[in-house]
Design goal:
- The protein is an alpha+beta fold.
- Among the domains are: 68 residues, Elongation Factor Tu (Ef-tu), domain 3 (Beta Barrel); 135 residues, Bovine Mitochondrial F1-atpase, Atp Synthase Beta Chain, Chain D, domain 3 (Bovine Mitochondrial F1-ATPase, ATP Synthase Beta Chain, Chain D, domain3).
- Helix content is 34%, strand content 24%.
- It contains 16 helices and 28 strands.
- Helix 10 crosses helix 11, helix 11 packs antiparallel against helix 12 and helix 12 runs parallel beside helix 16.
- The protein is globular, with a radius of gyration of 27 Å.
- It starts with a strand and ends with a helix.
- The structure holds adenosine-5'-diphosphate and magnesium ion (MG).
- Magnesium ion binds next to helix 2.
């Protein structure tokens, strides 16, 4: 690190002007004042350098010293990240269970030791991204140490298996030391060998997503929804249940107590996939609304960088950002403070490209070292007033592969998750359908099409029924409305608090849809045969509607049993109607 001395001439909120910083480069980190507050160079005009501070600048005054670190904002990537809670610069926020005050955080000397086991020997020829060895910590996620992206060559030396500190050098490759913990500039995507276009679904365990609007591994999805529509709850469900190896959860600008809740919940949960604590495969990055706004801007990039770090080891990673709107607000705030020419609604002209650049870091790749891994990005969008045409929502919809729109009316009616079936979409659906065929479910795309069209038909007819009265509707249309209700209540709603319903396997989801379709078909036949529609509607559909909660998360057979008892009930109805 070079230490170029400079001093502060002006402090205006989080913007700090410096002079005498001759080697300043855009985005370099500068340490401000005695407390060494971190900031980032955001403008250079002549000999004046403007630095965006990432912490409260209270107490910082003209004349204070400033030191350039001579490198852009970088994340320190190494063992021990999993299970931790960090700020936007990846400094630990929590130490042995206690929260550190913002501003009190520093990169601390990590006292922990790591068990490193080499997998190569001196003399071997390696390329960038190849594995040098692994850190054995007994956790569910294998943490490997790789030759850095710019490295490669002959292994001069590798340490024997043993216990090492976080920054210990464990190998020397072509004259370059490789420490356990390596640094990476967060605004630059970590390189991979190639992007894969093979599609496999990310199984989120959330039926409305997996059945109707799936997202592929390495794709991206956005969750737009007004305040209180259930964005955070849905993202937490995905963090808990999706079939990813690693979850990186970026809490960005949302309430601090909400973030503490997320962490407490993750702490308390067992991971159904590994039997370990869920936190052992989770990294939490928190820049909540009580922390300086500008640190939010970088936290998103820090999160993606951590995700790419695990991807490069050959893991499937899901990055969750809640909320990208709060991040965009930081961009807007910054633009207004620096006097940049505002574009739409005060956001800087670069908003669209910043969003595109963020979502572009999602991908399913062959890593430099030749394994496959993925980063799936899922971002919440909280449009002010629920207006989905505002700039952040509108641009985001262009750049992501799937959009899961949360509907205020559904949330109000306590239909959770409140994912709207009209207004949501998935650009991955066709490819995911082909994957299901290869995986043995030839009916996936057909089932999806049926459900979407029945829901749309039911919505249309319900609007009509409100005008003309349900009594005036033909029997077949009343059955179609019943189908909509059974699909909504028996399939799409999902109880996040239920042990058996919170996660749903693909097989159980398919069985639930098939059960509803079979029941609806039988209802239609009864009505055709002269049974009054009101009788079919008034029947207790409980055995069908309770199936999702009364069968285990992967119990397709149990669902089929529920379906049979419902069909028996309909057969009984048919007999009693025929009897007189
Ligand atoms: P947002 O993040 O969109 O503002 P939240 O995710 O915090 O909204 O949800 C607001 C409230 O809605 C929650 O506190 C909870 O009471 C209710 N809620 C949301 N999703 C669910 C769900 N899946 N099951 C039960 N309640 C839910
Ligand atoms: Mg929220």
């Amino acid at each position: 690190m070079v230490g170029v001395s400079a001093h502060v001439v002006r402090v205006s909120g989080s913007l700090v002007e410096l002079v005498d910083l001759p080697e300043a480069a855009m985005f370099d980190v500068v340490a401000l004042g005695e407390r060494e507050l971190p900031g980032e160079v955001v403008a250079i005009e002549g000999d004046r350098v403007t630095v965006q501070a990432y912490e409260d600048t209270g107490g910082l005054a003209p004349g204070a010293a400033a030191v350039s670190r001579g490198e852009p904002v970088s994340a320190r990537l190494g063992p021990g990240l999993l299970g931790g809670v960090y700020d936007g610069l990846l400094r630990p926020l929590r130490d042995a269970g206690t929260w550190l005050a913002p501003g009190a955080t520093r990169y601390q000397d990590d006292p922990r030791q790591w068990q490193f086991e080499p997998s190569v020997t001196a003399g071997e020829q390696l390329s960038a991204g190849d594995r040098l060895g692994s850190v054995v910590d007994g956790g569910p996620v294998k943490v490997h140490v790789l030759v850095p992206p710019a490295g490669g060559g002959r292994v001069d030396r590798v340490v024997p298996a043993g216990s090492y500190a976080s920054d210990a050098v464990v190998a020397t490759v072509a004259g370059v030391d490789v420490p356990l913990t390596q640094s990476w500039p967060v605004r630059r995507a970590r390189p991979s060998r190639e992007r894969l276009d093979t599609v496999e679904p990310l199984q989120t365990g959330q039926r409305v997503l997996d059945l109707l609007y799936p997202v592929a591994r390495g794709s991206s999805a956005a969750v737009p929804g007004g305040f209180g529509t259930g964005k955070t709850v849905l993202l937490q469900q995905i963090a808990k249940w999706s079939d990813a190896d690693v979850i990186v959860y970026v809490g960005c600008g949302e309430r601090g107590n909400e973030m503490a809740d997320v962490v407490a919940e993750l702490d308390a949960l067992d991971d159904p996939r590994t039997g370990e604590r869920l936190t052992r495969r989770t990294v939490v990055i928190a820049n909540t609304s009580n922390m300086p706004m500008m640190a939010r801007e970088v936290s998103i990039y820090t999160g993606v960088t951590v995700a790419e770090y695990f991807r490069d080891m050959g893991h499937h990673v899901v990055l969750i950002a809640d909320s990208t709107s709060r991040w965009a607000e930081a961009l807007r705030e910054f633009a207004s403070r620096t006097g940049a020419l505002p574009a739409e609604e005060g956001y800087p002209a670069g908003l669209a490209s910043a969003l595109a650049a963020f979502y572009e870091r999602a991908g399913h790749v062959v890593t430099l070292g030749g394994s496959t891994g993925s980063v799936t990005i899922i971002g919440a969008v909280s449009p002010p007033g629920g207006d989905l045409t505002e700039p952040v929502t509108a641009h985001t919809q262009r750049f992501v592969r799937a959009v899961w729109t949360l509907d205020r009316d559904l949330a109000y009616a306590r239909h959770y998750p409140a994912v709207a079936w009209s207004g949501s979409f998935s650009r991955d659906a066709v490819a995911v359908g082909a994957w299901h065929v290869r995986a043995g479910d030839t009916q996936w795309a057909h089932r999806r099409g049926r459900v979407i069209s029945l829901l749309a038909e039911a919505d249309r007819l319900t609007t009509l029924a409100e005008l003309v009265g349900v009594e005036a509707m033909p029997g077949a249309e009343r059955v179609a409305m019943l189908a909509g209700r059974l699909l909504r209540e028996g399939v799409l709603q999902q109880n996040a608090a239920s042990r058996s319903d919170a996660f749903c396997s693909a097989a159980k989801g398919a069985a639930l849809v098939d059960a509803v379709l079979a029941v609806v078909e039988r209802c239609g036949a009864l009505v055709d045969a002269g049974v009054p529609p009101a009788t079919v509607e008034a029947l207790d559909h409980g055995p069908l509607l309770r199936a999702r909660e009364e069968t285990g998360p992967d119990d397709a057979d149990g669902v089929a049993e529920h379906m049979r008892s419902m069909l028996d009930r309909l057969a009984e109805l048919a007999r009693s109607e025929a009897a007189p």
